[in-house]
User: Which sequence fits this backbone?
């Protein structure tokens, strides 16, 4: 026997006795009136207000545009805003000593969110949970890639939190730093660096603050010090500022130098490391000049030699006076302070120019278009570079014929060769 | 999704109150007011509950409520972090928290890293995923709602397949004549198909888009045929299956609310009562008893089938 399957979309008769009874009763009392208008209106209003009878929806408010410091309590009239987290960056540390209890029982969590990826909308939140169970928080209305570092910066018994906020979009590692501490039950900001819009209170207001924070122990106290990198330009390593606490405030002192590093493949796998200590100063024309004041030659950790610029350059080691005249730049063209560090045109030249199988060192010794390089040739016996001559322009090294060819800015090529004593000999203008 | 769940929660709570009020009102006023008014009320309530969106405009931030509670943060109940068992990986990365015991020059970080912070303090990997309470709730709700809708669709498809096999156009001239006469009396321009179906004991209207009026294969008496067809055609004219479908949709959305299931029963009951009232208005007073008798016969037929 077939059986009709049930469906929701039908008016099947109910088997219920109660419902049948109701239907029959309804037939007997079939003539009924209409409800009063007020009852119908009340019913409609009740139904329409269904979704509004209970409301637990939060209202989106615009994000705060200023620094907020609080201890977790929300001031009246200033509702807590919790943006929808999107791709949150979270860093947590525990076992910290952030209060004065001496116990390593505190915890910090840094959360940075960028809702919907709509940079720079977002929020970075630092939440501290003390060993006592108390929670403190600090917020900054900016998304970042956060790092946090606990250091004894102001007190040997309490750590400060150094918050590094790496910019999400910077292509040179821009960062902002905040030093946070717990004071009077609040998580407060003690100092900040790298904030473009708070220059008057920024410890490093000249900009260029980048990631790569270092720290060191201080010699004059049991405290620690911060080393904050500041970018000079994109071709050089940053200059570091040392941040110390003097008992009342932080002060930042610049190293006033930067250190570029180059690897010089000397020969057969042997490598030397060149540390070029750079500085900057204003020349006679009031132009800012970057220069290297010192070149340290190291093999591994061993310092082999330190080359410093000499004014005037030493006498060249060449065959004759004519050659010496050609390879000695006029002092008027000398750089103002040291080997030029103006990258892009006056670059370091590392190659074997005397055909002895060892790489030599050409240091830029010119700030003009002549692009002179002071050549320091490797002396294998003394394990030192020795100044030998200065050549102009982009040097062509003809290893097959043992020739060097300058490419001077105005005069064009000049050729040189080495005699049997290894001395440079000027052949004259023109190509070989 | 969080907002949708919150709106749905508010709606189902308010809807529950409205269902209870309507149920109580219908019980106390059943003998005085017609069932069709209750059907209108159910229709309005179903329409409201069928759209889980706020109907009234949201209060803006500059008009603060007298009491504002910050919404609790969504509890993360599962967090996947590949290759890391804990979020605090600072010590595991080979770092020591800088202290004073090392003295001047004592290493505070691995020598090869020179104490640099950048890139060393571990950050939460962006490749992980978390499962919050709201996400779990949303998944559960969607699963329940989807299951109900799918079950309804599956049941109806099975029903249609049965009809394709066992139903055929009615050929009994007596039934067709009564059907046509009643359609004319009710003013139906568009009429459902009249089919005879095996396995059916009492007449029934079925189908949402192309409804069919099904008659049992066993012959009915003249009165039973007439009153049954009148009842089902009144259902057709009132578009009761649409109301039932709407109630089903609301039930699917609010499947977690027992009062929603109760409301569906009340809707079906009031729909039948309203249909009876509408049918009786087309009959003379003397025919009401015969109409009631037809209902009893139909229930008796179903009960006898059940007892078999």
Assistant:
């Amino acid at each position: 026997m077939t059986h009709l399957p049930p469906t929701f979309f039908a008016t099947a008769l109910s088997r219920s006795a109660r419902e049948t009874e109701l239907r029959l009763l309804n037939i007997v009392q079939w003539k009924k009136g209409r409800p009063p208008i007020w009852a119908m209106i009340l019913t409609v209003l009740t139904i329409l207000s269904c979704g509004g009878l209970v409301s637990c929806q939060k209202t989106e408010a615009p994000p705060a545009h200023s620094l907020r410091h609080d201890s977790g309590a929300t001031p009246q009239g200033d509702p807590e805003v919790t943006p929808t987290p999107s791709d949150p960056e979270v860093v947590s540390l525990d076992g910290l000593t952030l209060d004065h209890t001496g116990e390593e029982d505190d915890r910090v969590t840094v959360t940075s969110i960028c809702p919907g990826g709509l940079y720079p909308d977002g929020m970075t939140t630092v939440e501290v949970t003390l060993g006592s169970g108390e929670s403190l928080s600090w917020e900054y209305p900016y998304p970042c890639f956060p790092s946090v570092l606990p250091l004894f910066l102001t007190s040997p018994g309490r750590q400060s939190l150094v918050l590094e906020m790496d910019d999400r979009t910077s292509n040179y590692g821009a960062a902002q730093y905040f030093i946070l501490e717990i004071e009077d039950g609040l998580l407060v900001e003690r100092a900040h660096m790298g904030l473009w819009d708070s220059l008057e209170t920024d410890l490093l207001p000249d900009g260029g603050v980048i990631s790569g924070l270092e720290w060191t122990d201080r010699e004059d106290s049991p405290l620690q010090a911060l080393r904050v990198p500041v970018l000079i330009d994109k071709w050089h390593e940053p200059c570091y500022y040392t941040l110390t606490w003097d008992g009342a405030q932080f002060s930042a002192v610049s190293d006033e130098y930067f250190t570029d590093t180059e690897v010089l493949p000397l020969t057969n796998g042997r490598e030397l490391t060149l540390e070029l200590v750079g500085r900057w100063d204003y020349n006679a024309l009031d132009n800012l000049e970057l220069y290297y004041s010192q070149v340290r030659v190291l093999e591994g950790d061993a310092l082999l030699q330190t080359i410093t610029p000499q004014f005037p350059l030493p006498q060249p080691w060449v065959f004759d006076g004519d050659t010496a005249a050609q390879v000695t730049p006029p002092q008027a063209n000398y750089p103002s302070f040291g080997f030029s560090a103006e990258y892009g045109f006056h670059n370091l030249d590392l190659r074997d120019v005397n055909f002895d199988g060892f790489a030599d060192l050409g240091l830029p010794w010119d700030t003009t278009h002549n692009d002179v390089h002071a050549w320091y040739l490797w002396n294998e016996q003394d394990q030192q570079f020795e100044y030998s001559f200065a050549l102009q322009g982009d040097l062509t090294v003809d290893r097959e014929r043992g020739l060097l060819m300058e490419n001077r800015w105005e005069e064009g090529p000049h050729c040189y060769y080495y005699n049997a004593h290894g001395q440079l000999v000027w052949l004259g203008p023109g190509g070989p | 999704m969080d907002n949708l769940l919150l709106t749905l929660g508010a709606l189902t709570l308010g809807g529950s109150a409205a269902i209870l009020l309507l149920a109580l009102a219908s019980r106390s006023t059943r003998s005085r007011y017609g069932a069709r008014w209750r059907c209108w009320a159910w229709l309005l309530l179903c329409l409201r509950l069928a759209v889980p969106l706020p109907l009234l405009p949201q209060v803006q931030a500059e008009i603060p409520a007298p009491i504002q509670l910050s919404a609790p943060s969504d509890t993360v109940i599962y967090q996947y972090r590949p290759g890391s068992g804990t979020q605090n990986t600072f010590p595991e990365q080979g770092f020591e928290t800088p202290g004073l015991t090392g003295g001047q020059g004592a290493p505070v970080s691995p020598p090869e890293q020179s104490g640099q912070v950048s890139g060393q303090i571990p950050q939460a990997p962006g490749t992980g995923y978390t499962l919050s309470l709201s996400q779990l709730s949303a998944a559960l709700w969607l699963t329940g709602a989807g299951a109900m809708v799918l079950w309804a669709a599956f049941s109806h498809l099975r029903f249609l397949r049965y009809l394709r096999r066992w139903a055929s156009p009615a050929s009994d001239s007596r039934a067709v004549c009564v059907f046509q006469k009643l359609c004319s009396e009710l003013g139906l321009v568009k009429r459902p198909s009249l089919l005879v179906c095996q396995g059916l004991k009492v007449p029934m209207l079925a189908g949402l888009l192309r409804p069919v009026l099904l008659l049992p294969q066993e012959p009915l008496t003249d009165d039973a045929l007439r009153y049954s067809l009148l009842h089902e055609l009144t259902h057709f004219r009132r578009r009761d299956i649409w109301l039932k479908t709407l109630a089903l949709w609301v039930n699917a959305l609010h499947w977690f609310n027992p009062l929603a299931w109760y409301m569906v029963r009340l809707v079906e009951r009031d729909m039948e009562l309203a249909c009876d009232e509408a049918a009786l208005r087309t009959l003379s007073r003397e025919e009401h008893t015969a109409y009631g008798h037809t209902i009893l016969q139909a229930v008796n037929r179903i009960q006898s089938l059940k007892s078999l």
Remarks:
- Chain A touches chain B through 94 residues (CB under 8 Å).
- Residues 17-28 of chain A form the longest helix (12 residues).
- Residues 68-202 of chain A form a domain with the Lipocalin fold (CATH 2.40.128).
